[in-house]
Specification:
The chain is an all-beta fold and 154 residues long. Helices cover 3% and strands 47% of the residues. Strands 5, 6, 7, 8, 9, 10, 12 and 13 form an eight-stranded antiparallel β-sheet that branches. The protein has a four-stranded antiparallel β-sheet with strand order 4-3-14-11, with no helix packed on it. The longest helix has 4 residues, at 136-139.
Length: 154
């Protein structure tokens, strides 16, 4: 782990990467990296945050499928404002606690990247890869953060 300068600093998580591994990278609009993770084919990661009104944790989870970023499932603990299942986009099943999972979404992310504006404070947008978690909100609240999956070549 290495802290980079500026404000709270940016947490850069780095692991050694095989020659053809894909890398999940979160960068600010100016190109500065916030986080970097090796994600092999079949590897998974989630974007987690707390709903701004209800406060519960929401999850959107992805998989590296042959070098493609694919949204695979989501967990939504409630039908709160802004949260719903779109018929035809995965299948909704109960989580047994009043919320639901949307499984089998299997939707490729165009260009293997998207931009997120992490919420400030208690919203706490985070990237989770395995047991490692990086808070995007802690280092770039309300900034444009690009989350991308890229192939590494020697």
């Amino acid at each position: 782990m290495q802290w980079l300068g500026g404000g709270l600093g940016a947490l850069l998580l780095s692991v050694s990467l095989p020659a053809t591994a894909e890398t999940l990278v979160a960068t600010r609009a100016d190109g500065r990296q916030i986080a970097r993770f090796a994600v092999p084919d079949g590897g998974e990661w989630c974007v987690l945050w707390h709903h701004s009104v209800k406060g519960f944790e929401v999850s959107d989870c992805y998989e590296n499928r042959g070098g493609k970023m694919v949204l695979t499932w989501s967990h939504l603990p409630d039908f709160a404002a802004g949260l719903d299942h779109i018929p035809g986009r995965g299948r909704q099943v109960s989580d047994g606690q009043g919320g639901y999972f949307i499984l089998d979404i299997d939707e490729a992310v165009p260009g293997n990247a998207y931009v997120l504006r992490p919420g400030a404070g208690p919203v706490d947008h985070r990237l989770q890869v395995g047991d490692r978690v990086v808070s995007l909100s802690a280092v770039a609240p309300r900034e444009r953060v690009r989350i991308s999956l890229t192939r590494n070549e020697d």
